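Let us practice reading a record.
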Amino acid sequence: MAGLLDIILGYDCNLACTYCTITEAMRARALSAQAVAQELERGRAHGFDAVSMTGGEPTIRPDLLPLVRRATRLGYERVKVQSNGLVLGVGENAARLVDAGVTCVHISVHTHEPAAYEAMVRREGTYAHMQRAFERLATLDVELGADVILEADTLARLPAAVDWLAARGVPSVDLWFVSLTDANASRPQSMPSMSEAVPFIAEARVRAEGHGMRMRSLHIPPCILGEHADLAFNPALDRVRVVSPDAVFDLADSAITPRQHVPACEGCGHRPRCGGLRPDYIDRFGDVEVARARGVEPSVRGRSRLPVL
């Protein structure tokens, strides 16, 4: 039985993004190389045929290439690394990663404007490395994608970010809705309402389609996306096992996975493929938008009250 083994190698990172959910205490926690090797072997024994290595930032680990080679030897058909790109923008690091067996690389863009990017990642001199990572990877035989965060400060720049990615040969982009868990729980202002995000997603879609790019939206229910419901992507529908320094669990149980249906979801045609809302979103905004989309009264009002139209 096929599936994805999603391994969080550790929580440490060479950036300190404003919206990041990783706390300082979490940064000290990581899987040992032996533990990763054991999970890779167990994953193959359980039928997983794809593996993703994430963090934190996986490329700061000196043992990343041996772990990738091990995954390849074990027979994983798809080996993905999710990175901020800084290390991959230096020298031949991107080529070494692909030569080791990586078949897919996703780079987190945060935002595409230099000053805004470096303010968000809180490290000067990093934008050029991120940009070079895309340029280097675009020349290699590897599946390339971008992960763009949707938060209050990035929404207005989203359509232009799609143009920027297209100009660098990026064929696909995934939109991640900001989470208010762990370290980012104290920054509720970073989370816009989903209804506020939809017009920017709609314009970004026009740009993406014009460039021949694939776009997917995570965490926003199809009913709120409305006419753009086909963009909704719920990876938890597939078989995904998450291995973290703290626990092993199904992606459907993750704190950043939509997993709570509200009364307005009853009878919705999207429900079989929709996880609903995340608890952190309901706590902030309630279920007003879902209720509005379904033409019923809301049952939960969050701390930030949205108007009932």
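A brief commentary: Residues 194-211 form the longest helix (18 residues).
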